[in-house]
Amino acid sequence: MAIGGNLxxxxxxxxxxxxxxxxxxxxxxxxxxxxLDHYVAAARSTVLAxxxxxxxxxxxxxxxxxxxxxxxxxxxxxxAAWHPHVWQExxxxxxxxxxxxxxxxxxxxxxxxxxxLADPVCAPLAPGTIxxxxxxxxxxxxxxxxxxxxxxxxxxPVWSAHWQALWPRxxxxxxxxxxxxxxxxxxxxxxxxxxxxxxxxxxxxxxNRLQKLLRVAAGTVIVTVCHLALLALDLxxxxxxxASRCLFGGxxxxx
Length: 255
Known about the structure:
disordered C terminus; mainly alpha; 14 helices; globular
């Protein structure tokens, strides 16, 4: 339901959701599960239950990742609808982040794989040549990302440029908090480029920075962005747990 005007009400709901975030002990119990059935069953007893409610051992990685992308998009749309109208479109653009790597794959001349054709977002864009795909994208809600499929620019800067274009005029406190958020994300991305082994410690560092920023950004819409970023980190960890057990029977994979 769109509230469309009460930021305090929206942030109260965001804080309530953020307060349910799973702690380290919960992750340790979950990750002690050695196969997919046990992992999914354990996840259903946590705050992640809504994300895995439809999963079982008959699902493959592609179907689970497709479901997680769809659920993320619905969640972002729902959270955005709690906010004043001026912030909704800017927040809604976060829903498309999980699709950036898929659009980058569509910039290759090869035919799209079957798992991509099963995705309701990518299926209408995937047939034909790269030019056909770019044209199909131009006629969709993802038109601002056309340069990705055309192969002209990498996904991150294309997505970010449109996100910045959607940024409403904001007060100094909100702008300051956004600058801190962008700095934290940029620092994380730079660290990932030189990570020699697992990226888990880097994700934990980013999560700690975002937790601190939740307090600094109190009363601004950047609280919502931090919440969504922290949720994205949790879903990335969940996705890795599902994939490792689906593909390798529980053997850990390095990210």
